Structure formats: structure tokens, C-alpha cells
Amino acid sequence: MTNYFPIHLNLDYKKAVIVGGGHVALQKVASLLPTKAQIVVISPEVTEGLQPFITAQQITWHKKAFEPSDLDDAILIIAATNDTAVNEAVQEAAQHWQLVNRADQQSESDFIMPATVRRGPLVLTVSTSGASPALARKIKAELAEQFDDVYDDYISFLQQARLMITAKFDKGAQRRAALQALLAPSLLEWTRNGEIEQREAYLQQLLMGDTL
Ligand SMILES: C[C@@]1(CC(=O)O)C2=NC(=C\c3[nH]c(c(CCC(=O)O)c3CC(=O)O)Cc3[nH]c(c(CC(=O)O)c3CCC(=O)O)/C=C3\N/C(=C\2)[C@@H](CCC(=O)O)[C@]3(C)CC(=O)O)/[C@H]1CCC(=O)O
Ligand SMILES: NC(=O)c1ccc[n+]([C@@H]2O[C@H](COP(=O)([O-])OP(=O)(O)OC[C@H]3O[C@@H](n4cnc5c(N)ncnc54)[C@H](O)[C@@H]3O)[C@@H](O)[C@H]2O)c1
């Protein structure tokens, strides 16, 4: 079994080419959309679910069969047609520096995609290394419930608070203690209950070095 190496790629303004426009392509487009990648779909036909993204110009559709030049400048390539020969041709045409995913042949892929839950900057990913995509999906659903929408706001608060604390205290024990104190469970609870004043008061106290 392959031991995959998990990393978070910065795809902003980089080109990702998906060859094929079916159900798998739609799933891959959905996971690429939160990034600022330039998403290009190469396919004679596309599934209905892709149409709104094309109309909104969130992705570019080239209505054509695959040719090697379609891969020019792509950093990420996903071969997701229902024709093994075409997926093979995509892999063959790729340069050594381009990362290729084969929807029909995991063992030939340079990377595979995890199931992902996003809560603002918090990104939770699950992979079974392909052993059971259905289990990855199930664990994702459990995580989505545990780390619910409140985390969006909670993480934004933590991010702002961290900036204020690092601006106020130099590196060292006091800064570390303040950052640690930000993780008190009550901060999450106050966020959940909309008790923003409580949260703010706690932060102000930390910034004054009161509880440290
Ligand atoms: C996580 C998720 C993200 C995504 O798709 O982006 C994802 N599959 C999801 C769901 C899912 N996929 C399948 C089922 C039906 C149940 C089943 O078959 O078990 C379900 C469950 C469902 O839909 O409920 C069918 C399936 N999947 C693969 C094969 C081919 C094979 O096994 O060879 C077949 C059989 C095809 C066939 O024969 O018909 C392969 C892959 N699927 C992967 C990712 C990669 C490994 C992930 C890992 O386990 O780490 C890999 C290698 C693709 C890659 O990335 O290269 C997404 C979660 C959606 C979400 O986020 O909610
Ligand atoms: N990785 C996964 O999670 C997963 C899940 C299910 C299936 N699969 C594999 O992925 C493949 C695709 O599945 P799907 O459900 O998206 O199929 P699909 O039939 O919905 O879509 C196939 C797409 O490929 C396009 N296509 C065909 N020939 C082409 C060419 N020459 N150039 C460009 N595009 C071309 C078609 O127009 C269509 O849009 C399956 O054959 C299967 O092997 C993978």
C-alpha cells in the first residue's frame, strides 16, 4: 500500500485541468472551487451539475475531446473520462513536473483526494488511502457534525485574537500562556451562544496580562 504524504497546496492562480465532464469531474471541481485555482474542464459533454459553474465563469469549459496541448501550463491534472485509453493518453502526455490523478487507476496517480470539511481556515481532511472511500465520507460527516458551523466564527475570532496577542506580547512565556488561554472551552461556548461581550471581555483581560 502507498503511504501518501498529506500537504496543503496553494493553487491560487495556478491552472488545474480536468479531462472529462461527468460525475467524478463534478466532485473534483467542487473540491477545487474554494481555492483560487484556474479550473479548466476538457470534455465534449458535461453533466448538468457543472453548468451553473460554467455560466458563472467559475470554471472554463473547452467543449472538445482531449488533446495533449490541453495540459499546457497545468500544475494539476485530473484524468476523469469514462474511457481508459483517454485517461492513459492524458497520463502519457503529462510532463514529469505535472501532478496527475487518474480517476480510473489509483495506483497510477501522483495524488488522491481526501474527503474535506472546511470551516473558514480550519480544514479537516480524511483519507483511507483509497481503502474505503465510503468510510472517508462517513468520517467526514461525523467531523462535520462535531466541528459545526460555529467553528467558522470561532476560528475567525481566534485568528484576530492571536494577532492582537502577538502584537502585544513579545515571544516568550507570557505570549505562549495567552495563546494557550485562548483555547479555554468557554470561548467556544460563548461563540455558540452569541455571548460576544463575554468573549471580548475575556480577550481584553488576556491582553492586559491579568490572568497570566
Ligand atoms: C473522499 C472522496 C473525495 C473526492 O471524490 O474528491 C473520494 N471518494 C468519495 C466518495 C466515494 N467514492 C466512491 C464511493 C462509493 C462507495 C465505494 O465504492 O466504496 C464513495 C462514497 C459515496 O459517494 O458515498 C467510489 C470510488 N471511489 C474511488 C473508486 C475507485 C477505486 O477504488 O479504485 C471508487 C469505485 C468506483 C467504481 O468502481 O465504480 C476512488 C477514490 N475515491 C477517493 C475520494 C479517492 C480515495 C479516497 C480515500 O479513501 O482516501 C480515490 C482514490 C479517488 C482519487 O482521489 O483518486 C469522496 C467523498 C465525498 C465527500 O466528500 O462527501
Ligand atoms: N475516483 C472516484 O471517486 C471514482 C468514482 C466512480 C468512478 N470512477 C472512475 O472515473 C471514471 C469517470 O466516472 P464518471 O462517473 O465521471 O463518468 P461519466 O460517464 O459521468 O463521465 C465521463 C465524461 O468523460 C467525457 N469524455 C469521454 N471521452 C472524452 C475525451 N476523449 N476527452 C474528454 N472527455 C471525454 C464524457 O463526455 C463525460 O463527460 C469511471 O470510468 C471510473 O473508472 C472514479
Describe the structure.
The protein has helices spanning 23-32, 51-55, 84-93, 133-146, 150-168, 173-181, 185-192, 196-207; strands at 15-19, 38-42, 60-62, 74-79, 99-102, 115-119, 122-126. Helix 5 packs across helix 7. Strands 3-2-1-4-5 form a 5-stranded parallel β-sheet, sandwiched between helices. A two-stranded antiparallel ribbon has the order 6-7. Helix 3 (84-93) links the parallel strand 4 (74-79) and strand 5. The N and C termini lie far apart (49 Å). The model has no long low-confidence stretch (mean pLDDT 96). The longest helix has 19 residues, at 150-168. The protein is α/β, with parallel strands linked by helices and 212 residues long. It has 8 helices and 7 strands. The protein folds into 2 domains: 15-113, NAD(P)-binding Rossmann-like Domain (Rossmann fold, 3-Layer(aba) Sandwich); 150-207, no CATH class.
Structural key phrases:
212 residues, alpha/beta, Rossmann fold, 2 domains, five-stranded parallel β-sheet, two-stranded antiparallel sheet, 8 helices, 7 strands, elongated, binds ligand PQ2, binds nicotinamide-adenine-dinucleotide
